[in-house]
Design brief:
By secondary structure, this protein is an alpha/beta fold. The chain is built from four helices and seven strands; from the N terminus they run ββββαβαβααβ. The mean pLDDT is 93.
Length: 188
């Protein structure tokens, strides 16, 4: 059975955990994390050939790149047709979105809709279909006690019943969300 080639962009200390069918390549500027490729992600092009990866994982890294449009174009370039792209980014209402001095921006539930060429005003030389998007009250990769996990599941469920309302109103009246989770399909 052929291995699925996965790129983990800027994993830092928390690299993507592959399934038995996946082979992971990591790219990071920091050598101390032992990435497969050492590269500054703000420098384009990234050191990969066109149409290389079956899956791309970017957890809390896109906000560190000055041009989201250019980063998405590069992800598009190196992804195979129909590749799955998983992106986790800080929600604009998250305190952590704004305390890190290396963050260039935060995101909303609709941020990656603009990379779909079927949109009224698409951006970039790329084309993705948003397959899934979720507001998340807490980060899934941070350990929590049982009470927090149960509360978070409940809040996530309620919030995702009407994501636009939560993006527009809830985060100001009730409180913010930690992150937004996206699954995109590469359309080539």
């Amino acid at each position: 059975m052929k291995k699925i080639l996965v790129l983990d962009i800027g994993p830092g200390e928390k690299a993507y955990t592959p399934t038995h069918r996946e082979r992971v390549i990591t790219i990071d500027f920091n050598k101390k994390f032992n990435p497969t490729k050492v590269h500054d992600l703000t420098k384009f092009p990234w050191p990969f050939k066109d149409n290389t990866f079956d899956k791309i994982y970017a957890s809390h890294i896109i906000e560190h790149i000055p041009s989201t449009v250019r980063a998405m174009e590069e992800i598009y370039r190196i992804a195979k047709p129909n590749a799955l792209v998983i992106i986790r980014v800080p929600h604009f209402s998250s305190r952590s979105a704004w305390i890190n001095p290396t963050h260039y921006k935060a995101f909303s539930i609709g941020s990656f809709d603009y990379f779909d060429q079927n949109m009224r005003q698409p951006y970039g030389n790329c084309n993705f279909r948003v397959m899934k998007k979720e507001l998340r009250y807490t980060r899934a990769d941070v350990p929590h006690d049982i009470v927090t996990r149960v509360f978070t599941k409940f809040v996530n469920f309620i919030a995702n019943l009407n994501q636009n309302f939560c993006d527009r109103v809830w985060c100001y009246w009730v409180g913010g969300f930690s992150e937004v989770y996206f699954e995109l399909k590469v359309i080539k």
